[in-house]
Amino acid sequence: MEERRNIPRYLCTDDFSDSEVSINNRKYQLISTNFNRNGIALYSNERLPEISSCLISFTFRHEEGNIELSDIPCKIKHRHETEVGCQYGIQFLTEAESEDSRAKLLTLVEAFLAAATNNEDRYGLE
Questions:
Q1: Is the distance from CB of 102 to CB of 37 less than 8 angstroms?
Q2: DSSP state at residue 93
Q3: Structural domain spans, the chain
Q4: Does domain 10-116 correspond to CATH entry 2.40.10.220?
Q5: Rounded to whole angstroms, how far apart are CA atoms 75 and 16?
Q6: What percent of the chain has pLDDT over 70?
Q7: pLDDT in tens, 12-60
Q8: Contacts from 49-52 at CB under 8 Å and sequence distance 24+?
């Protein structure tokens, strides 16, 4: 299957925490499923409010130390809500070309996930 994205997605490993999404001062815990420096895919049994912007926080554990990202401004780009759960595509609203340290940390997390990825086992089933 041909990859349609400009940047590949990487499966969130066990080193990736759940994501905390904040909408109108209410916090929701969602499961982090896949990631790249531009965004993250999340899953929840609970539907999020019909709003397009939010803040997201998560931690990536690495042998060199935890990378903690807090209150990153985001846009909810995709929603797939069913009776058994909800999937969301979240776009990070950071300036990749700026001196934004969060953008640099997102790129670092992506590099760690890319290094740990087995391209023959995309879904971590082996």
A1: no
A2: -
A3: 10-116
A4: yes
A5: 20
A6: 85
A7: 999 999 999 999 999 999 999 999 999 999 999 999 999 999 999 999 9
A8: 49/23, 49/24, 51/23, 51/24, 51/76, 52/76
